Amino acid sequence: MNYVPGDLRDQLAHVGYDVVQAGLVCGSGGNLSARIPDEDAIWVTASGSWLDRLSRNTFTSVQISDGAPTMIGTIPPPQIEPTSELALHLALYRARPDVNAVVHLHPQTALLLDALGEHIRISTTDHAFYLRRVATVPFRMPGTTELASLTAAMAADGTDCLVLSQHGCVVVGDSVELAHKRARNLEEAASLTYRALAAGRLENLRDCPEEFLDRLHGSTAVTV
Ligand SMILES: [Zn+2]
């Protein structure tokens, strides 16, 4: 409703600034993209971009089908290299026609839990609503087509939130705003899980009430 209006690059720049401020990523770790309406193309961050210093000219446009630079309208693609995780973004857009935004970050608490062999618990209605479920992708080398194809295969069933083991997370959404909310809620759920673990009370952490989950998975509209 009051999210950043207008150009998708402005929305992604807002995500980048916010996630760095929130500690979900350190400077230039992670990368962002959005599907351009009515085009077989995405805006994607340039290689090495600092996420809290993004502007329209720090994005480049590439085709989803083959990753080649492409013109948007009369605007030629900037002469900059896309992120080294471009294959990951492209594989997700190909596997999920419903996805219009991909956010890849390196959030510390989610990664700490993964390194400790713990999964992120979903305890609150917010976390259940935004995350639904969280899958863990076994480690593959960053930037490889192997990581891209395995992640896309695991997201193909509609899973929107994935932890890339010992590397980061990737969240998708039908809008930049929804992917942004999911990224924030994923790390918040990880933080809640970690605090229960640190307090020695993880086994006491209750799951989100069944009543809410049933409504969420049913046809009735649910709000949080
Ligand atoms: Zn990464």
Which SSEs are present, and which pair or pack?
Elements: H1 8-21, E1 31-35, E2 41-45, E3 59-63, H2 86-95, E4 101-105, H3 108-115, H4 125-131, E5 134-137, H5 145-155, E6 161-164, E7 168-173, H6 176-198, H7 210-217
Parallel strand pairs: 5-6
Antiparallel strand pairs: 1-2, 1-4, 2-3, 4-7, 6-7
The structure holds zinc ion.
Zinc ion binds at residues 30, 85, 104, 106, 142, 167-168.
CATH topological fold name: L-fuculose-1-phosphate Aldolase
Average pLDDT, rounded to a whole number, is 94
Shape: globular
Distance between the termini: 15 Å
Could you give me the name of the CATH homologous superfamily?
Class II aldolase/adducin N-terminal domain
Please compute the radius of gyration using only Cα atoms: 17 Å
| Helix-strand sequence | HEEEHEHHEHEEHH
Return residue spans where pLDDT drops below 50 for at least 5 consecutive residues.
Answer: none
GO biological process, one term: pentose catabolic process
Keywords: Lyase, Metal-binding
GO molecular function, one term: metal ion binding
Domain Class II aldolase/adducin N-terminal: 10-194
